[in-house]
Design a protein that fits this description.
Neutral Protease, domain 2, Immunoglobulin-like, 8-stranded mixed β-sheet, 28 helices, binds tryptophan, binds zinc ion
Length: 887
């Protein structure tokens, strides 16, 4: 607060304002005496003036937040209070520090009071830290910025009974007993690292151990630390870790660089996992898996996230970011690496579909909304708001395109060069692009626009055919985004082929490069007009339009590229659904609308009809379904309501919901016999397995079950729910029941709760299923938030109810009454006092008010205003709310 008591808006940090730090830290020695409410942290920092910084006499600036300073000593002399300048966020400024100096501080902090889950906190009675992005300043005074890389030693001290396990980064370096039942352990990390990679885990955890021999013959001790009783649930994570370690050696020649690699799993965690050097900390969701408690999707998530965090050891840790604007340097690259790894473990084509579906579900809307930002942002208020789908997923797409442009071999050479040049440095995205450019000899300056320009490029196709000559015209444009009204063309790699009328390839597959706003590509010597198969493998993160329904249907049946087959069937369904939505909108007065969850043909009394073209595509897919069950399951799924809404200028959540529910029911009825047959044929024989083939069979079988359920046939779901021996089948059956009006619904929900009430990760699923069900309205969601098992302090639980409702139940969230919006805003307000990072994330669905009609838009803005008016709002939530209102 300023002196006039007017809260001033929090400052905006700009990329162009980057200045090197005045001081570097060469060595950090920490002594941490753990206590739930009064942990003591002693830090000894060996400081050296930065030769690259301007201002030879600049002061030493240390970040600090929620610390109680007990003492500060510079070169052996206590610093009097008047030497300590106080910085706005809680930091310190010390003038007159010599060019080389030693600063010793002692602070007290309270892990128990830390509900923010940033810094040192307690989870299930165990101590855990989270320092990315700016949590280390909540542990000790420090220049908490990634371009300050230091060597760390950490000595931990705690009560032996409460904390038999004491872990930190690096290699273990001694342990021993202390008086009064306490003990200590020391860790030495030989690799310089930024403070955001610091970690401590301490408590009553048990280790599941294994080992890995690197290709140069070094033995690495592996351990996963979990709560007693969860030891049997670590096998998949451990196996994923060893496969990741091998893959990085084989694919990039990158070997692990410490004697130990530890993972600790905790229940209270703001995100998925964290790549702290030698001590990864994971959300239990991405470690624990048993067939009875984890779904196939959970198994896949574990493999991906374990790989992701492991791969950060080189892309992020050994080579790190100069500042947080460079976040995609490590995240985009590491997501690209984990996607590539997972693709190599099973069906690459199916993995790609899933990745594209995710990109479109999360990143395209972000690019079209009020928080749109480039992969390398230009400014932020709260950096935690920029751990986004754009930085992660679009960042990965940009790396993938670069690889397509320069070729796999040059890309590998570029990676080698990047690491050789920048090992132990904090660098920028330009440094990465330069390494790729130098290794390949390809000029990537224009390509760098992908990092600087926000928004999803839109490609339009035109065609001409005469005398055997086929001309493909591709035009691109990118809609304006906040702060970037004008857009330049970006180089778009378009992997493509041409399909002749008989369904065969009639030209060599090619990679076209669309660099200008519009370009012609000419193909000679064709007997007949071909159908273009474009963006194979989704070679660029763009939207494509201009093909006819007929062409899409043809490609869905004939293309040799699995991605284009899937994409064409999705685009066909999208166009069909949009036409049906339009028909409903134009014919019916809004007041008479009634959405029937059963999807049974009713929208203010009108009967919808199943379009025969869509039925034909579905029939053809079903005919070939057993050839590739995983692919068939993906292709049979109708585009989501959210995806359809994203294709409309002004969405109509009720009409979209009615159309999709109708189609699910109508397709279920039309193909009931074939769905029933698939459900029989694909029943699991033999032992439960989680390989790609087994997962694909369950996915297709449960897709069939869902179509039957949509058609009102819930008997199979009841039987499957009663007899299921794995969570994938159990949950799929329960979902059908929860979405139905079957009398078995309530009983099944109660039985599931009774059986799993002691398993938090399974209870999350119980909340999510209900939150996303069309039978759950805002009042029912609100009632769930008062359930004794709901807990605002646990991020997984908040996401499982509030996040799932707002992002996964569009009909209820966008109820015309505005109740859905009010529920979300109430939750954001309550959360902001507990965990600001999670609160700010929950604001996003309210930001998309421009896509809704005027009445809904006004209600959404009113809720944003109500949040904005709260005194003491966190800067993260403030940033999301104010940008949502301004756009
Ligand atoms: N760097 C982590 C990852 O991508 C994610 C992360 C960022 C994170 N900030 C966090 C995790 C805060 C937990 C809490 O893997
Ligand atoms: Zn990451």
């Amino acid at each position: 607060m300023s002196s006039t008591d007017q809260p001033s808006p929090p400052p905006t940090i700009r990329r162009e304002d980057y200045r090197p730090p005045a001081f570097l830290v060469e060595q950090v020695d920490l002594h941490i005496a753990l206590h739930p409410t009064a942990t003591r942290v002693r830090a000894r920092l060996a400081l050296r003036r930065n030769p690259d910084a301007a201002g030879a006499a600049a002061a030493l600036e240390l970040d600090g937040e929620a610390l109680r300073l007990l003492s500060a000593v510079l070169d052996g002399a206590p610093l009097p209070e008047d030497r300590l300048g106080h910085l706005p966020g809680g930091g310190l400024r010390i003038e007159g520090v010599p060019d080389a100096a030693v600063l010793e501080t002692e602070v007290e902090i309270s892990p128990e009071a830390n509900s923010e889950l940033s810094g040192l906190y307690l989870s299930g009675g165990n101590y855990v830290t989270q320092c990315e992005a700016e949590g280390f300043r909540r542990i000790t005074y420090f220049p908490d910025r990634p371009d300050v890389m230091a060597r760390y030693t950490t000595t931990l001290e705690a009560d032996r009974a409460a904390c038999p396990v004491l872990l930190s980064n690096g290699n273990p370096d001694g342990a021993g007993e202390l008086p009064d039942g306490r003990h200590w352990a020391r860790w030495v990390d030989p690799h310089p690292k930024p403070s955001y990679l610091f970690a401590v885990v301490a408590g009553d955890l048990v280790a599941v151990r294994d080992s890995f021999t690197t290709r140069s013959g070094r033995e690495v001790a592996l351990a996963i630390y979990v709560r007693r009783g969860d030891e049997d649930a670590c096998g998949h994570a451990m196996d994923s870790l060893k496969r990741s370690m091998r893959w990085d050696e084989e694919t990039y020649g990158l070997e692990y660089d410490l004697d130990v690699f530890n993972i600790a799993a905790v229940s209270d965690f703001n995100m998925g996992a964290m790549e702290n050097k030698g001590l990864n900390v994971f959300n239990t969701k991405y470690i624990l898996a048993r067939p009875e408690t984890a779904t196939d999707m959970d198994y896949e998530g574990i493999e991906t996230v374990v790989a992701h965090e492991y791969f950060h050891n080189w892309t992020g840790n050994r080579v790190t970011c100069r500042d947080w604007f460079q976040l995609s340097l490590k995240e985009g690259l590491t997501v690209f690496r984990d996607q590539h790894f997972s693709a190599d473990q099973g069906s690459a084509a199916v993995k790609r579909l899933a990745d594209v579906r995710r990109l479109r579900a999360a990143q395209f809307p972000e690019d079209a909304g009020p928080m749109a930002h480039p992969v390398r942002p230009d400014s932020y208020v709260e950096i935690n708001n920029f751990y986004t789908a754009t930085v992660y997923q679009k960042g990965a797409e940009v790396v993938r395109m670069m690889r397509a442009l320069i070729g796999a071999e040059n890309f590998r050479r570029g990676m080698d060069l990047y690491i050789a040049r920048h090992d132990n440095q904090a660098v920028t995205i330009e440094d990465f692009v330069r390494a790729m450019q130098d290794a390949s000899g390809t000029d990537l300056s224009r390509f760098s626009r992908w990092y600087a320009q926000a928004g999803t490029p839109e490609l339009r196709v035109r065609e001409a055919f005469a005398d055997g000559r086929y001309t493909l015209t591709l035009a691109q444009s990118t809609p304006p985004t906040p702060g970037q009204p004008e857009k330049l063309p970006v180089p778009v790699p378009v992997a493509m082929g041409l399909i002749g009328p008989e369904g065969a390839e009639v030209a060599e597959p090619r990679l076209l490069l669309l660099e200008e706003a519009e370009q012609d590509f000419v193909f000679e010597g064709l007997a007949a007009k071909p159908v273009p198969s474009l963006l194979r493998g989704f070679s660029a993160p763009v939207k494509l339009s201009g093909l006819t329904l007929e062409q899409l249907g043809f490609l869905a049946a004939h293309d040799t590229d699995a991605f284009v087959r899937w994409e064409s069937s999705q685009q066909y369904a999208t166009a069909t659904m949009l036409a049906m939505v339009e028909a409903l909108r134009s014919q019916e007065p809004k007041a008479e609308r009634a959405v029937h969850a059963s999807g049974d043909a009713a929208f203010s009394g009108r009967t919808l009809e199943l379009p025969e073209g869509l039925a034909a595509i579905t029939g053809a897919l079903l005919g070939r379904a057993l050839e590739d069950p995983a692919f068939a399951a993906e292709a049979l799924a109708l585009p989501s309501e959210e995806f359809i809404a994203d294709q409309m200028t002004i969405a109509d959540p009720e009409a979209i919901h009615a159309v999709r529910q109708f189609l699910r029911g109508a397709l279920g009825r039309r193909f009931a016999a074939r769905f029933a047959a698939l459900h029989e044929t694909l029943a699991d024989a033999g032992p439960y397995r989680t390989d790609g083939a087994a997962i694909g069979r369950r996915a297709l079988r449960n897709a069939a079950l869902a179509y039957l359920g949509a058609a009102g046939e819930t008997g199979r779901a009841e039987a499957q729910f009663a007899g299921a021996t794995n969570m994938t089948d159990s949950l799929a059956a329960l979902r059908v029941l929860v979405d139905s009006d079957s009398p078995a619904r309530e009983q099944a929900l109660a039985a599931f709760h009774a059986r799993w009430k002691e398993e938090p990760l399974v209870l999350d699923k119980w909340f999510t299923l209900q939150a996303m069900s069309p039978r759950t309205d805002a009042a029912a969601a609100e009632a769930l938030s008062r359930h004794p098992d709901f807990d605002l302090r646990n991020p997984n639980r908040v996401r499982s109810l509030v996040g799932a409702f707002a992002a996964g139940n569009p009909a209820a969230f966008h109820a015309a009454s505005g109740e859905g919006y009010r529920f979300l805003a109430d939750m954001v307000i309550a959360l902001d006092a507990v965990n600001t990072q999670v609160a700010a994330r929950m604001v996003s669905p309210l930001g998309h008010w421009k896509r809704q009609d005027a009445a809904r838009g006004a209600r959404m803005r009113a809720e944003l205003e109500r949040i904005a008016a709260r005194p003491g709002l966190s800067k993260g939530t403030y940033e999301k709310v104010s940008k949502s209102l301004a756009a």
